[in-house]
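Sharing a chain and its predicted structure for anyone who wants a worked example. Both blocks are below, sequence first, tokens second.
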Amino acid sequence: MGKLTIYAAIAADVFSRIGPLLVALRGTFGTVEDLRELTDTMNRERLVGTGMLADHLAATGSLRPGCTAETARDIIWAYIAPELYLLFVHDRAWSLEQYETWLARALTDSLLPPIPSPTDDGRA
């Protein structure tokens, strides 16, 4: 199991446990300043965490060519946004497993070098 698949599983697990809180925050966002501050803090902390993963992927040479640690951080940050979890699981009734599988695939496809197909001989 790859690092991004494990990361997706952790994100899905966390969101599944705080899902009801996310739904409540979503319903009151913009009406209470304390909730706006909480959301801003969550976004900043998520950026720090995704930056650590992106830095690790860059340091181990795991990122696709041309993808910087900063770009990887921003991509991971966006993909693990609570809003996406809510859209898929709450609004579209995806199962947690569907969300986790999609997240792992989206992260992998966006950040890691493509895996050549067995029939790809490198010619254009």
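Comments welcome. The helical segments are 3-28, 33-59, 69-79, 82-91, 96-111.
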